[in-house]
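input
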Amino acid sequence: MREPDTDDYKKLTKVMQYIRNTKDITLTIEPDDEAKLWVDSSYTVHPDMKSNTGIYMMLVKGAMYTASCKQKLNTKSSTEAELVAVDDAMGKVLWTRHFLAAQEQHVPTTTIYQDNKSTILLAENGKSSSSKRTRHINVRYFFVADKIKKGEVKVAFCPTTNMLADFFTKPLQGSTFKRMRSIILNMPNTDKTSIVLENRKMMEERKEKSRCSFNKDMNPKNARKEPKKRETRLNGKMIKNNKNGKKKRIFTKSIVLVIIF
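output
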């Protein structure tokens, strides 16, 4: 960093505190012959308006390769940024496939997970799926389309809530950060069932909180009560206090009937 300031020092302090408090957390790897990748991008997050690429690769469980890098060109849309991110990951995909093949291992089709459906169409169909907004994209970024046709790679859709590459592109917090950290590091007692149960528990707690707040608002005891009008007597005449606290004098009229015989 060329010119660090006070904010940068505070960020460094937080990083050091996190490293000190999590020194007992370890990475556990359970290898296999099937590689899976999660690729995502964060659109125009750098000062020069370039996007950032996040890559996470695993062999069954545990992180075998991770990357968070700045893209080398400016993109005009998030779809284009996602396609560039997939192209950034293709080098590692091919190297992994060749390495496993050299070890005389069976290498099935490598799955790349994406959360942008427009990017998936561009990756699968190449220029044939281009529109006015994507015709300017360089042909080199459709390299993945050729590998898909050969059966070496396939691009599958992954919901944003399960996109593990977000861990390397966005500042996650709270339960989302802990959940993805557990999966990436393959921490003990971490499986899909526990994650589903945790998410279900969070949804139930939110519903319970909203139900309690609704019942509290609808309770007649908690309804806003209007101040009661007070009545006092002064010298035999009725005086009423209105809402503003002002006294109002009420005069009674007497009717005298005179009967003339």
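quick obs: The longest helix spans residues 192-218.
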